[in-house]
């Protein structure tokens, strides 16, 4: 055996012993409320396809038409000869939907975070992250070379303290002209990166308060609406739109792979931001343009959201969210339903226990994945239940009943 295989098997054994081993499950059906997994039909409560658009006839039709007209692949990067009509249509639709000057499409949300953050900050700058931001943002921050500071989740007091200390050194007397220069000679930048809806907890950022802080201290704000777009606010325009603060956020990003039912990522912002990213975002420049079908599908999803069907789907989703939070006795703020996310975590703590719960549910016909380290901290394992507009409230009621019995210990979650 090669040393590679031997060493990797040692590590895999360790991963298994910690209850952290993962494996792929082959799905033989489209995304939907019911999936075929390894010969079984399961009620699917794990998809981020929040509006059920991934298999929507109009979205599929748009993808098929794009394949027929533009082919399967884009053939080159956007800056060479891969900038196809469907990409431009998508970017126009995104900017209009988010009410920004411009938008830029990337091949994934992950590539969006990496390309954008690394283009905007570098050594000598500071990037401030919420403790629970997505791995793509953490990786981007590390790659950027900027100094990384992490605040406890949604902690405004900690953010204010950090901004106070970072800006104090920014205007230190060693540069009499004002701001101290970074390695490239320009003003030191401070970029705060948060999510509007946190992907594993489903809670919202105190966006308005964070905006007030970043404005007071002269920092920039990037908001990842991966789980907010298509879910929150009027017509699913996201939290920034719901709170009417869109024009006070420097960088809005998100994915096309969740509520928009396709694949890819985007940034929305000013024309200068987009022009700059076209010139500087390496994951945009050095990567083949997204498949035309994916771009066209996302554009069709944005169109659906703005048709009569959008509000209908959103209100089905919101009714399911209400049904779930009521049954699980989660805090219901009584606030307008447009501010509730489609992610419902059921915290169990222990990794092995979470996996046992998930296995038991699967035997009952429900797919609700256990989320463990490294996706969440050790000892914070959970079931992550996601709702989509395509779910049947009666099936959801059955799942909630089963969950309550499991939690009450009436059923031994078997390993
Ligand atoms: C899913 C997700 C991403 C990554 O988007 P992909 O298009 O799946 O690469 C980025 N940020 C957050 C918060 C996400 O949940």
Outline the structure in words:
- By secondary structure, this protein is α/β, with parallel strands linked by helices.
- About 40% of the residues lie in helices and about 15% in strands.
- It has helices at about 5-15, 55-70, 80, 85-100, 110-120, 135-145, 155-170, 205-215, 240, 270-280, 280-285, 290-305, 310-325, 350-365, 395-405, and strands at about 35, 40-45, 100-105, 125-130, 145-150, 190-195, 220-225, 250-255, 265-270, 345-350, 365, 370, 380-385.
- Strands 3-9-8-7-6-4-5 form a 7-stranded mixed β-sheet, sandwiched between helices.
- The structure holds pyridoxal-5'-phosphate.
Which secondary-structure class do the elements indicate?
alpha/beta
Question: In percent terms, what proportion of residues is strand?
Answer: 5-15%
Shape: globular
Q: How helical, in percent, are the residues?
A: 40-55%
> Which parts are unreliable, with pLDDT below 50 for 5 consecutive residues or more?
none
Radius of gyration: 22 Å
Multimerization state = single chain
Question: What are its keywords?
Answer:
415 residues; binds pyridoxal-5'-phosphate; 15 helices; alpha/beta; 7-stranded mixed beta sheet; 3-stranded mixed beta sheet
Short synopsis of the structure:
The chain contains 15 helices and 13 strands.
SSE diagram, text form:
Blueprint: H1 3-17, E1 34-37, E2 40-44, H2 57-70, H3 78-82, H4 85-98, E3 102-106, H5 109-120, E4 126-130, H6 135-144, E5 147-151, H7 156-170, E6 190-195, H8 207-217, E7 220-224, H9 239-242, E8 251-255, E9 265-269, H10 271-280, H11 282-285, H12 292-305, H13 309-327, E10 343-349, H14 351-363, E11 366-367, E12 370-371, E13 381-386, H15 393-407
Bound molecules: pyridoxal-5'-phosphate (PLP).
Pyridoxal-5'-phosphate binds next to α5.
């Amino acid at each position: 055996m090669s040393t590679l295989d031997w060493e990797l098997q040692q590590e895999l054994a360790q991963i298994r012993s910690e209850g952290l081993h993962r494996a792929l499950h082959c799905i033989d059906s489209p995304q939907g409320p019911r999936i075929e997994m390894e010969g079984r039909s399961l009620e699917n409560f794990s998809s981020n396809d929040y509006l059920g658009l991934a298999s929507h006839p109009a979205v599929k039709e748009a993808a098929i038409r794009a394949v027929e007209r533009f082919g399967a692949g884009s053939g080159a990067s956007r800056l060479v000869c891969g900038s196809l009509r469907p990409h431009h249509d998508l970017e126009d639709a995104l900017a209009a939907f988010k009410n920004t000057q411009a938008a830029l499409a990337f091949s994934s949300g992950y590539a969006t975070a990496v390309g954008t953050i690394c283009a905007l900050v570098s050594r000598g700058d500071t990037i401030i992250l919420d403790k629970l931001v997505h791995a793509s943002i953490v990786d981007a921050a590390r790659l950027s070379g900027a100094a990384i500071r992490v605040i406890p989740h949604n902690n405004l007091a900690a953010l204010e303290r950090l901004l106070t200390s970072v800006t104090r050194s920014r205007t230190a007397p060693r540069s009499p002209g004002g701001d101290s220069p970074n390695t490239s000679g320009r003003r030191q930048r401070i970029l705060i990166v948060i999510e509007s809806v946190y992907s594993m907890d489903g809670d919202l950022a105190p966006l308005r308060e964070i905006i007030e802080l970043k404005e007071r201290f002269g920092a920039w704000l990037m908001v990842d609406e991966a789980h907010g777009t298509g879910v929150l606010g009027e017509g699913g325009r996201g939290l920034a739109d719901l709170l009417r603060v869109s024009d006070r956020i420097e960088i809005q990003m998100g994915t096309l792979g969740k509520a928009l039912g396709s694949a890819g990522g985007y940034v929305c912002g000013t024309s200068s931001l987009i022009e700059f990213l076209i010139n500087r975002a390496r994951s945009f420049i050095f990567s083949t343009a997204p498949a035309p079908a994916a771009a066209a599908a996302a554009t069709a999803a944005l169109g659906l959201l703005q048709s009569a069907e959008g509000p209908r789907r959103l209100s089905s989703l919101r009714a399911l969210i209400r049904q779930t939070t009521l049954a699980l006795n989660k805090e219901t703020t009584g606030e307008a339903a447009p501010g509730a996310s489609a992610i419902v975590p059921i915290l169990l703590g222990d990794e092995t226990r979470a996996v046992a719960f998930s296995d038991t549910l699967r035997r009952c016909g429900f797919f609700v994945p256990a989320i463990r380290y490294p996706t969440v901290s050790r000892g914070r394992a959970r079931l992550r239940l996601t709702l989509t507009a395509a779910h049947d409230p009666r099936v959801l009621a059955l799942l909630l009943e089963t969950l309550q019995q499991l939690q009450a210990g009436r059923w031994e979650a078997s390993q």
